[in-house]
Fold this protein.
Amino acid sequence: MTDGGQRLFVGGAWVEPDGGHYAVVDPATEETVGWAPEASRDQVHAACAAAREAFGRWSRTTPEERAAVLARAADIVRERLVPYAELAQAETGATTGTARGMQVGVGAARFRRYARVEPAEWPIAPQINEAGPMGRAGVMGALAVRQPAGVVTCITSYNNPWANPAGKIAPALAMGNTVVVKPAPQDPLSVYQMAEALEAAGAPAGVVNVVSGTSVEVGEAAVASPDVDMVSFTGSTAVGQRIAEVCGRGMKRQLMELGGKGAAVVFDDADLGAAVAGIGSTFSFYSGQICTAPTRVLAQRGVYDRIVEQLAAYAGRLKVGDPREQDTVVGPVISAAHRDRVESYVELGRKEGAVVVAGGERPSSDRGFYVAPTLLADCTNDMRVAREEIFGPVVTVTPFSDEDEGITLANDTDYGLIDYVWSADVARAFRVARRLRAGGVGINTVGRNMEAPFGGFRRSGVGRDCGSYALHAYGEVQSIVWPG
């Protein structure tokens, strides 16, 4: 970063922004972290053009060459983990452990993962053709080949400025694509550090471009540019719909990781300690600002009162405050505007008839955008707090009677990203999981297998990534056929 603020990264050059700079604010202290660049529409188009120009040469490099760049980037990020994490923490308000482990650490791990070369060709069983209008009888061989999609615009979320962009950039580059990254306006500075690491790792000019801004036209230009072949977006369903409409007009490929309202179905025989700890991660992990969180608890009536009591006690024990202090568990949310939004949902829950059994009041602090971990009990599935994504440390609890009712309630939602089942009966847990309309289901865990496909049903998204699925997501499949 220069004294005047961060520059854009376009075509391998660090460029002064046409729109000047805006302040990036630390949500824990409300102090200015740095000055982020405001790109113009022309500069976004220049980034897309640079990516298009670089695509031909980069796509013709070998998978091993591309993997070497990603491996070097992973090493550089690991070497700089502490200063990178300090900036990520300042931009997002994450706790120190989260910033180091789940933000920068996962970002490095994703570069390392896609430095692994995987086969891009698959033989298809030969087909015997009878003589006919298409020619003589013969045996036709075939090969399926995975090809890069082209220029990919990556629009990333504010909750993790390392893992989310790396999860897009790394598989896209591994496949031979070039990228234009438009980071979230709240915390873009970390993504420029990622670009610096990729540049130092030997990514050629134009292969990675980063443009930021608070104006809607920055993202619009990055999506609508005729140089762009695919858009990968993580964010709200409402914004995803608008992007999808533009992609549809241009027949651009898309990968959409959108909102969630994850159901946690807790049966009478569940290990309540494990269930409470898993559900309680909603309060602490990014302060609930995560689409995969189990925010909607469905508790069987035999354990309903105990779940409410134990979740309330759990929430009450969590220290809310300065994320730089070692014992802090819950840091701030990203902005004052988002704090107000989360608080408005808690008030809405009260009006709808939910009972606030934990939290519900703003923590006492002379600065910072803090929200107390909040538990809303006696909810029904028609309440807005049980249907809409709040994206904060707020959990709702709704009772159910039997397995079929629990499944019906879980599936009665516009979303379908990740649901959860807690039960000691493993056969039942798997039976229920298969009936849940969600892209993923955690059984007795909120943990993830990062090789498993990730994505949502319904309004939670389009497509799948993670592991080898991400290589498919950022590629096209070509068939080559020949006479045997």
In short: The longest helix spans residues 41-59.
